[in-house]
Amino acid sequence: xxxxxxxxxxxxxxxxxxxxxxxxxxxxxxxxxxxxxxxxxxxxxxxxxxxxxxxxxxxxxxxxxxxxxxxxxxxxxxxxx
Length: 81
Fold this sequence. Notes:
Helix content: over 70%
Protein name: DUF2630 family protein
Structural class: mainly alpha
Region (Disordered): 57-81
Organism: Streptomyces rutgersensis
Strand content: under 5%
Largest sheet: none
Order of helices and strands: HHH
Oligomer: single chain
Radius of gyration: 15 Å
Pfam families: DUF2630
Distance between the termini: 25 Å
Number of helices: 3
Shape: elongated
């Protein structure tokens, strides 16, 4: 997966995340339902963002960005920015 593929995935996940949020704001569904629907896309988005940052860092410092691999969700979710 190259940088453009990762960016396309991020854009698609952000769009997918907007639908449940809009549904909740419109009162079409309840918070528990939408929270469940948002959890998986939010985690996937975190992983893609992490991978993109790591690829860019490798390229910036002379490394091979293709060596960067997605980290486990639990590892990425624990980061503090």
